Amino acid sequence: MKHRNSLAKQSNAKMLDNDIAEYVGLGEGSSHNLQKYQKVSVIPLVFLIFYEVSGGPFGVEDSVQAAGPLLALLGFLVFAIIWSVPEALITAEMGTMFPENGGYVVWVSSALGPYWGFQQGWVKWLSGVIDNALYPVLFLDYLKSAIPALESGLPRTIAVLVLTAILTYMNYRGLTIVGWAAILLGVFSLLPFIFMGFIAIPKLNPSRWFLVNLDSVNWTLYLNTLFWNLNYWDSISTLSGEVENPSTTLPKALFYALILVVVGYIFPLLIGTGAVPVDRELWSDGYFADIAKMLGGVWLRSWVLAASALSNMGMFVAEMSSDSFQLLGMAERGMLPSIFANRSRHGTPLVGILFSASGVILLSWLSFQEIVAAENYLYCLE
Predict the structure, then answer these.
(1) What confidence category does residue 359 fall into, taking pLDDT thresholds of 50, 70 and 90?
(2) Where exactly are the transmembrane stretches of this chain (predicted)?
(3) In order of start, what are the domains of the chain with their CATH numbers?
(4) Which of 136, 289, 381, 382 suits a disulfide with 304, CB 3.0-4.6 Å?
(5) Which residues fall within 8 angstroms of residue 230, CB to CB, at 6 or more apart?
(6) Whole-structure pTM value
(7) Crossing angle of helices 368-381/114-143, nearest 10°?
(8) Residues 271 and 203: beta-carbon distance below 8 Å
């Protein structure tokens, strides 16, 4: 029995050595060509993750409408612990174990084989492109109140094309530019809520935070809102190969991003529910802008609206980076034609970016509701 165990251990060790040798060979082959490209450091990576997952507190208002202030506040704290933390830890562990582009496609391929890895990659990429088609639509929906011509027709079509072209070019120029753009957009999106916090201090009534009525909770809306706003931590894994020293940078970035996302949800909720009398029926998408007007006036409301609109741009560039580098990683593993592995002089996956942008343009003609329905269907398949 000992002899058989010894042989089994030797056999397993040889298999492990072969697997490691094969993996290191792939990594070495890839990294040799990437020395001239600048890798992503901690701070830009934090904000890329922030936009992959959140983009700010816009969209969390429904949690108050569904369950009231207390459950909304507790929900974003508890759900982050039981869902976001494990998902972020898995992403950190697997991303450091497989520090290459492709992320979850590589994980699934290693566990279940390349067939299921390709299926995962195809559905995820399509889901990401559909998700990205939402952001130009949402951005123009914010602008149409100031520029009515953007509501429909040729002006809206031109605006979609121009906006997509500008943001696609930003992705083409490199992850460094995308990362620093995410930082600027993230700071701009969060600053108005910090101002709201200072203005709201004299008006805060902490007793409002504890309002709850379990008999009137809309559990479906409540849980969907929490899940939607605290998901997608694994998306950043598709560009692990572009991260500087991923074994330390990726876990740190995920940790800091987790804190930023949770605080970025809870702090505005504390302000909004504590400084203004709570009317749950008013708490729907966009209500933070109304609260800003109540607390600071039209100028603060305009800032919140601008921050919400520009947040869509941050989510667009982060999502396109994730989608395009996923295609590059799949091509490096032989799942797609080698042309998808070609890089521009800026180190970006040119063909992957063009494919992702083409998908966004084709899908942007759909309505907001149609895009959301298609995205939710694909997410269920994942």
Answers:
(1) confident
(2) 40-60, 66-85, 178-201, 254-278, 298-318, 350-368
(3) 42-380 (1.20.1740.10)
(4) 289
(5) 53, 76, 79, 80, 83, 84, 261
(6) 0.84
(7) 160
(8) no
